[in-house]
Design goal:
This protein is mainly α. 66% of the residues lie in helices and 2% in strands.
């Protein structure tokens, strides 16, 4: 008889472990891609991250307790949106790296051209994907958390340095 940790569920039944471990980081990165590409809706989609992480915990981070995964999930949400929320609440007086994501929460202005919003979104999502892949490799969610905290700063840096972003208001 198998233990409850070894019982396959509907997502991983009959699949090799490497496929399950590969799909996990992608499932953790998709809400970040949506958040950084679709204003208003993306912020709401990131609220699914704690549910996804809790569902994937037995397959990706067996050694991590539920409390650790829930804490990391909450901190991931905080890290993704803290710079933008502080910029909004302080009316621009507090500008952390990553505060350029304010337009994703309140789309009063938007970057002009698809490259000016797609390139930063892909770089920030790529960083989150790498962090979640490393977290799967080390079997702990902390690298995913660190990557999520760095993602808004990556988005902001890409907006300023890689793409001459002009905002249309």
């Amino acid at each position: 008889m198998r233990s409850s940790q070894q019982t396959p569920d509907a997502l991983s039944a009959g699949q090799p472990p490497w496929l399950v471990r590969t799909r996990g980081p992608a499932l953790l990165a998709v809400p970040v891609l949506v958040a950084f590409t679709i204003p208003l809706v993306g912020g709401a989609v990131t609220l699914l991250l704690p549910l996804i992480a809790a569902h994937l915990r037995p397959r990706l981070w067996r050694a991590a307790s539920r409390a650790v995964v829930h804490t990391c999930s909450a901190l991931v949400l905080l890290g993704l949106w803290l710079p933008a929320l502080l910029a909004i609440v302080s009316q621009g007086q507090v500008a952390l790296p990553g505060s350029g994501t304010v337009w994703l929460l309140i789309p009063l202005c938007a970057p002009v051209g698809p490259a000016s919003w797609l390139a930063p979104a892909l770089l920030a999502t790529g960083l989150t994907l790498v962090g979640s892949a490393v977290s799967v490799a080390v079997r702990h969610p902390w690298p995913w958390l660190v990557a999520a905290w760095l993602a808004p700063a990556t988005y902001d840096a890409a907006t300023h340095w890689l793409v001459p972003a002009a905002f249309f208001c």
